[in-house]
Specification:
Structural class of chain A: alpha+beta
Number of domains of chain A: 1
CATH superfamily of the largest domain in chain B: FAD/NAD(P)-binding domain
Radius of gyration of chain A: 16 Å
Largest interface: A-B, 21 and 22 residues
Distance between the termini of chain B: 44 Å
Radius of gyration of chain B: 24 Å
CATH class of chain A: Alpha Beta
Order of helices and strands of chain B: HEHEHEEHEEEEEEHEHEEEEEEEEHH
Helix content of chain B: 10-25%
Order of helices and strands of chain A: HEEHEHHEE
Largest sheet of chain B: 7 strands, mixed
CATH superfamily of chain A: Beta-grasp domain
Oligomer: heterodimer
Shape of chain A: globular
CATH architecture of the largest domain in chain B: 3-Layer(bba) Sandwich
Strand order of the largest sheet of chain A: 2-1-5-3-4
């Protein structure tokens, strides 16, 4: 079996070879009272996992990220909506169980952190479950 | 006390929760001749598997390349059949009191249905806690609950000749729209979009009723309620266009699925860590001897909330449980492949 080069290993573990794109991005969570918290999100993880790891309030994520509970409901800042993309059919179905759903509503377990999301701004609703 | 003792159900183990960890506990304990009663707040077995994702595929059960939440539940039920567990559904364990000693534990449990159990050991396999209906953020809604706001239908008569508003787009919302339509004076179904995540035949039956003018369908959400002494007189519908409108109604049924609340487990005197029960990784026993915690509800260094972790945990916990239930018996480790003793218990010998 061929030995894995450093570059192969770096690619496999999510880092870009040659130190190009960042492996960490800044994500800001604004709670329902307007308080902002900026944290580092790891490329490849989800926005929900980033929130949980940093003890962001107002995100319950009861099912742990299986898109099965609608308790990681967030509003994506309109400037970022295009970059985060649209909800899948499964996610839209689950959003039926969230409260006060708006056109920019997403379940943040379904948003993967990517280098181009550096600076992402998310607002959390007052009530998840 | 004697009267209580007479009325109590005597068993080796009470398992709190009928999800995958609770069901497989029946199996591992059963192989060690430990008889189980299983209590769950839901009306059926399966826990999150059957409640949250019955149709979704699971790919990480060892030896099963793919199965749905419901298939896993059905297979587990089949696997534990030889041990004849007794299920108590639609019941929540409210109190857990220790009667014994650390060497010879004994417990008294009571449910919200008034049943009393006496058990030598307790397995808490309660996952994320008990499932309860999600309550929408409508101001003062709690003062109407049980009188004119309902999260489930207990008696159809409560809705006879009433103007009923039903909110939601899933199977519960549609089932009750269809079932209550002949009974109610009027039905207004409110949902945020004109797509429904429900059985196709229910969706088409509902659409036919709308087309025939027998029920009303409105896009939007309910943001406020009005009434007096718990009796509703109207609900405010905020349309997707932002326009608000008052709907005269005497009954409101919001269907936003279920949420998990830790519930009474928090009051059982066990050490807790962020709503989880810390256990050791040798026996998966809690801070109280004889009470075990398995599956998603426990915590220990490196814990992963995987179904397969729960299966491993119950096998080890059962070994220690045997010492409490049969203090004088020596436990011989045996394999189901070769032990005629185990095969007899499984009914395959």
């Amino acid at each position: 079996m061929a030995k894995m080069s450093f570059e192969d290993a770096a690619t496999r573990y999510g880092a870009e070879p040659g130190g190009g794109a960042p492996t960490k991005v800044k994500i800001t969570f604004v709670d329902s009272q307007g308080q902002a918290r900026s944290v580092e999100g790891e490329v490849g993880s989800t926005v929900m996992e980033t929130a949980r790891r940093n003890d962001i309030p107002e995100i319950a994520a009861e099912c742990g990220g299986a898109c099965a509970c609608a308790t990681c409901h967030v509003y994506v800042d309109e400037k970022w909506a295009e970059k985060t993309g649209k909800a899948s059919q499964m996610e839209e179905d689950m959003l039926d169980f969230a409260f006060d759903v708006k056109p920019n509503s997403r379940l943040c377990c379904q948003i993967t952190v990517r280098p181009e999301l550096d600076g992402l701004v998310i607002t959390t609703p007052a009530q998840q479950g | 006390m004697n009267q209580l003792k007479e009325a109590a159900i005597e068993t080796d183990v009470v398992i709190v929760g009928a999800g995958p960890a609770g069901l497989f506990s029946v199996f591992e304990l059963g192989l060690l001749d430990i008889k189980a009663h299983v209590i769950d707040i839901l009306p059926r077995a399966g826990g999150q598997c059957s409640e949250l994702y019955p149709e979704k595929p699971i790919y990480d059960i060892p030896g099963l390349p793919v199965c749905t939440g419901q298939e896993l539940t059905d297979n587990l039920l089949k696997q534990i059949e030889p041990f004849h567990p007794t299920f108590h559904f639609n019941e929540m364990v409210e109190t857990l009191v220790s009667l014994g000693t650390a060497e010879k534990p004994e417990f008294r449990l009571s449910t919200d249905a008034g049943k009393i159990f006496h058990a030598k050991v307790v397995f808490i396999a309660a996952g994320g806690g008990s499932f309860q209906p999600k309550k929408p953020p409508i101001p003062k809604i709690e003062s109407y609950e049980g009188k004119s706001v309902f999260y489930a239908v207990r008696r159809m008569e409560d809705f006879r000749d009433k103007n009923v508003v039903i909110v939601g787009g899933g199977d519960s919302a549609l089932d009750w729209t269809l079932n209550l339509q002949p009974v109610a004076k009027s039905i207004t179904l409110v949902h945020r979009r004109d797509q429904f995540r429900a059985a196709p035949h229910s969706v088409s039956a509902m659409q036919e009723l709308v087309a025939a003018g027998k029920i009303d369908f409105r896009l939007g959400q309910i943001t406020a309620v009005e009434g007096e002494d718990g009796e509703l007189t109207s609900a405010v519908l905020k349309g997707n266009d932002g326009v608000e409108e008052k709907l005269a109604c005497e009954r409101l049924m919001p269907f936003f699925g279920l949420t998990m609340k830790l519930g009474p487990v928090a009051d059982w005197g066990l050490q807790l860590n962020e709503n989880l029960i810390p256990v050791d990784t040798e026996k998966f026993e809690t801070s109280h001897p004889g009470i075990f915690a398995v599956g998603d509800i426990n915590s220990y260094p490196g814990k992963l909330k995987l179904i397969l972790s729960g299966f491993h945990e119950v096998a080890l916990a059962a070994q220690k449980a045997h010492r409490y239930v049969y203090p004088d018996k020596k436990l011989l480790f045996q394999y189901t492949t070769s032990s005629t003793n185990l095969q007899k218990k499984l009914g395959v010998s």
